[in-house]
Amino acid sequence: MQRRSVTHFTLAASLLLAASGTLAQTKWDLPAAYPATNFHTENLTQFAKEIDTATGGKLKITVHANASLFKAPEIKRAVQSGQAQIGEILLANFANESPIYALDGVPFLATGYGDARKLYDASRPAMDKLLAAQGLKMLYAVAWPPQGIFSKREVTSVADLRGIKWRAYSPATAKIAELIGAQPVQIQQAELSQAMATGVIESYMSSVSTGYDTKTYESIKNYYDTQAWLPKNAVLVNLKSFNALDAATQSAVTKAAADAQERGWKTSQEKTEEYKRLLTGKGMTIHKPSAKLMTDMQQVGALMLTDWQKASGAEGAAIIADYNKLRAKK
Ligand code: PCA
């Protein structure tokens, strides 16, 4: 008897608590790999804030910047396994899992923001299918600025890069090293400053944004603006965690994600010029690559595209066909 009344009381109390919303708060951890001041991370912080506001504090997302919670290559696995509910990854890092991710590292397929966006749109259905099969859902993706070459040495053709210590951040950037005869070393951005300071690397391909964030100008003075491709960061959520949210919270997340995506692409493009100015101010020379360097690099891109087409088969061909359709529209 005594026992039953306690049970009733507990039940009534929890119903009351649930009704007032105090039991309904959800907390998510969001591991990210880039510094808090990077434009992707700032965008994530705003995204989290907007969700907090829109849900009246029901969903709280904590952004863990600079690979402080998980290292860059571990973030995807952490979200898949539910160790983190949401996370930001660099799609190209997962090229070995599927050609759909590898597409994000193919040089000279899409070299400006307009084309990069079209390639993203064309790849999104295949990407969504792949992610769903892995228990994940993409909330949004944003391009990095175009990729160019940072080098200690002045470079007029890829022959000048032969034998050089080259930092790679993805399978594709390691493949480029292999094709040009450089020596690749896998280093994520969070460890890049130290690798340069200790002389572990003397060149790498990335964006002016990363060049600035990692103070590359302190050891490397040349940047060749090859505008080879624009890899993307993507914000992924664990499907179970997302499905556990009520409908109103889900739509608040989706809405904030759509806004973050538009804001992110715009900021990325606008900041490209600003980062060039900042790097120049710090003593870096932004070079227009020589015609020879460009044709050499384009050859590398053509080889990598052929490999990608072989690996991706009919699914890849459909993406490229959609991409070309979007480009023809103008
Ligand atoms: N910066 C990241 C990936 C692409 C980019 O522009 C990096 O260098 O690690």
Keywords:
single chain, 330 residues, D-Maltodextrin-Binding Protein, domain 2, 6-stranded mixed sheet, 3-stranded antiparallel sheet, 51% helix, binds pyroglutamic acid
Blueprint (SSEs and pairs):
Layout: H1 2-20, E1 26-31, H2 39-54, E2 59-64, H3 75-81, E3 86-90, H4 99-102, H5 113-133, E4 136-143, E5 148-151, E6 165-168, H6 171-180, E7 183-186, H7 192-197, E8 203-206, H8 208-213, E9 222-224, E10 232-238, H9 239-243, H10 247-281, E11 285-287, H11 291-329
Parallel strand pairs: 1-2, 6-7, 6-8, 9-11
Antiparallel strand pairs: 3-10, 4-10, 5-8, 5-9
Residues 90, 144, 169, 189, 206-207, 209-210, 231 line the site of pyroglutamic acid.
